[in-house]
Specification:
By secondary structure, this protein is mainly β. 9% of the residues lie in helices and 32% in strands. β1 and β2 form a beta hairpin. The longest helix has 14 residues, at 66-79. The protein binds copper (II) ion (CU). Copper (II) ion is lined by residues 32, 59-60, 126, 128, 131, 136.
């Protein structure tokens, strides 16, 4: 069946998150996409991500700039056994890598705070081998609004 081609709902941000009062952002991981996409973030704000894996297999939520993405991509590739049904890789990267990475099994959920960097292009990817190729590429829209509003 053809999916309706409605544009994604417009995201309205009335206030940027702060360290004291983070803004709630929910992202659901599916087989194989991020929902919603784009994720709209304000540079400099603090968000409280609720990340839920609604898929049937493990997924990786990696948000960060290109260096962060490259590092996690290599770590996941190195840690995952070459099998079609390979499960969660115990990958690790140097502690100063930056960005945010959450690995969730099917049905798992985590709540985590994230401080959105200023002056970086951000991507949202799942680096479990094969998932990017299947479409697990999320968009991040950075929107400049007044942090003090
Ligand atoms: Cu995935």
């Amino acid at each position: 069946m053809q999916r309706p081609t409605a544009p994604p709902p417009e995201v309205e941000i009335t206030r940027a998150g702060t360290a004291v009062e983070p803004r709630d952002v929910t992202v659901i991981m599916r087989d194989y996409r991020f929902d919603p996409t784009p994720v709209v973030l304000v540079p400099g704000e603090t968000v409280r991500f609720t990340i839920f894996n609604g898929g049937l297999i493990a997924h990786d939520f990696v948000i960060g700039d290109e260096a962060v993405q490259r590092t996690w991509h290599a770590a996941d590739a190195a840690a995952t056994p070459p099998s079609l049904l390979a499960t969660a890789p115990p990958a690790s990267v140097p502690p100063d890598t930056g960005g945010l990475r959450v690995l969730l099994g099917s049905g798992q959920q985590v709540v985590v705070e994230y401080s959105v960097p200023v002056g970086q292009q951000l991507a949202l990817l799942c680096h479990i081998p094969g998932h990017i190729e299947k479409g697990m590429v999320g968009a991040v829209e950075l929107r400049d609004i007044s942090i003090s509003a």
